[in-house]
Design brief:
The complex is a heterodimer of chains A (379) and B (126). Chain A is an alpha/beta fold and 379 residues long. Chain A contains twelve helices and eleven strands. Classes of the chains: A alpha/beta (379), B mainly beta (126). The complex binds zinc ion. Zinc ion (ZN) binds next to loops of chain B. Chain B: This is OB-fold domain-containing protein.
């Protein structure tokens, strides 16, 4: 493959993730951008794509002018939980096509000052108005999986146990710890069958990546393929639970773009685990494990560090935290660090190929507002 | 918390001459997709739609009990996705079942109107 048209991830950075109500989006964003610029060895960018869901209008220009980034094209995108990776794929496309030379993708969100607990359902949406909070939406999938025997409560809990244990080695994570399956199941019920430790926390944070044309240098991390889709109707005819098909379809697009046969070709993956059932459905939709075996894979260590297909070495959304707009770029940062061999005790040895999947929802009738799948490779 | 304003996005419902509650939705003229909403086109194929009534009977596809505070809804409350017979999948409250266990998946259910707050409601019938 020639370097022409190939895009490199020249630098990545993140703020700390966690409840940080005393900070503001300016300082969180600066933490991420400063690190990404330092990593890239340059502070020059020609355009910026910013992903956020709940930040106020004008937030992109507001945070960027505070660090002297003005006068260039700045675009804000919103795609629910996939907003950060939407910014990334748009920045990638801008560099790949030559529209811009160096592009910054920035994701940010401050949830702790916006909500007292879970995200308030959108009242202009029929199911949001009816009280379908995000945990309840995922609980519907988990309950259905339990009903059909596709997962057990213990397997659901195993995802939380695994990702909290991974996060012990991630100093930027919001939560970490060595929980037991019993502790996860005994934590407070949020929406049956999902308990508190099976739900991502309320988080504040920012993450950034600088994309440039690839130079062909040894060890350079490049984008091997990327794809974005929005969902189609999910209804009584759908063969799968909510969100499965949009992930499967987007994965197919991304693998084709990357000229790969299967997601299992990836050495390490960061996927959307806002709730435990989400990671299980996603590993099945990616084709990483056979249908109905996502729970077994989590409980059996297949998707743990040291397993055949390590998923969410960072701790995932469940443990690193889930500041919506920042999440996708935090996933990109983790995979970039993994491909450079810089992850210390959570490093997947010899990782050369990594995959990032993010999906978000909240619009009734659709199988997700958007899904983004990206394949990164170390050259 | 701010009160919802503007048009109510939830399914419209009405009582038939026989006394049954039905969702007043649309059916696609091209692909026959049932839609619980009075939207101008079919969300599946974009074709023209015509008025259609769905319910009152259906089957519970999945269910949960919400135990966290959600504006406008006092926890715990029981929710179910109900596939209306020859109709769409709708989200409904299951009043009276919110004490301990979610509504059994696969059970039959029937529309019983809307709550004081305008939420679609079903009861389990078998
Ligand atoms: Zn149609």
């Amino acid at each position: 493959m020639t370097a022409r048209g190939t895009v490199a991830v020249a630098g990545v950075g993140t703020s700390h993730f966690g409840r940080q109500p005393d900070r503001d989006l300016l300082t969180l964003a600066y933490d991420a951008v400063r690190e990404a610029f330092s990593d890239a060895g340059s502070e020059r960018v020609d355009a910026v794509w910013v992903g956020t869901v709940f930040a106020p209008a004008g937030v992109a220009q507001r945070v960027l002018r505070a660090m002297g980034i003005t006068g260039i094209p700045i675009v804000t995108v919103e795609n629910a939980c996939a907003s950060g990776t939407t910014a990334f794929v748009e920045a990638h496309e801008a560099v790949r096509t030559g529209r811009h030379g160096r592009v910054l993708a920035l994701g940010l969100e401050q949830m702790s000052t916006a909500f007292s607990g879970a995200i308030t359902p959108e009242t202009t949406d029929p199911e949001g108005r009816t009280g379908l909070a995000m945990p309840a939406m995922y609980a519907m999938s988990a309950a259905r999986y339990l009903h059909t025997g596709a997962v057990t409560p213990e397997q659901l809990a195993a995802v939380s146990v695994k990702n909290h244990a991974h996060a012990v080695h991630n100093p930027r994570a919001q939560y970490s710890g060595h929980h037991t399956v019993e502790q996860v199941l005994a934590s407070r019920m949020i929406a049956d069958p999902l308990t508190l430790l099976q739900c991502c926390p309320t988080s504040d944070g920012a993450a950034a990546a600088v994309l440039t044309p690839a130079t062909g240098a040894a060890g350079e991390v490049v984008v091997r393929g990327a794809a974005l889709r929005s969902g189609t109707p999910w209804n009584h005819r759908s063969p799968h639970v909510w969100g499965h098909d949009v992930v499967a379809d987007t994965t197919r697009d991304a693998l084709a773009a990357a000229d790969l046969d299967a997601a299992s070709d990836a050495d390490v993956l960061e996927v959307h685990d806002a709730f435990t059932i989400g990671e299980i459905v996603t590993t099945e939709a990616l084709g990483l494990v056979p249908p109905g075996e996502g729970g077994k894979a989590a409980a059996g260590g297949v998707t743990a560090l040291g397993g055949a297909h390590p998923v969410n070495p960072s701790g995932g959304l469940l443990s690193r935290g889930h500041p919506l707009g920042a999440t996708g770029l935090a996933q990109i940062a983790e995979i970039t660090w993994q491909l450079r061999g810089r992850c210390g005790a959570r490093q997947v040895e010899g990782a050369r190929l990594g995959l990032v999947e993010t999906m978000g929802g909240g619009v009734s009738v659709l199988d997700g507002n958007a899904c983004v799948v990206t394949v990164l490779e170390s050259r | 918390m701010s009160s919802p304003t503007g048009a109510d996005p939830r399914p419209a419902i009405r009582r038939t001459a026989e006394g049954d509650w039905v969702v007043v939705g649309r059916r696609c003229r091209a692909c026959a997709e049932p839609v619980a909403y009075a939207w101008p086109r079919c969300p599946s194929c974009g074709s023209a739609v015509e008025p259609a009534h769905f319910g009152p009977r259906g089957t519970v596809w999945s269910s949960t009990v919400v135990r966290i505070a959600v504006p406008g809804h006092a926890p715990p409350y029981s929710l179910a996705y109900v596939d209306l017979d020859d109709g769409p999948r709708v989200l409904a409250h299951v009043p009276g079942r919110n004490a301990d266990e979610p509504t059994p998946i696969g059970s039959t259910a029937r529309l019983i109107g809307v709550s004081d707050d305008g939420d679609l409601q079903v009861e389990v019938t078998g």
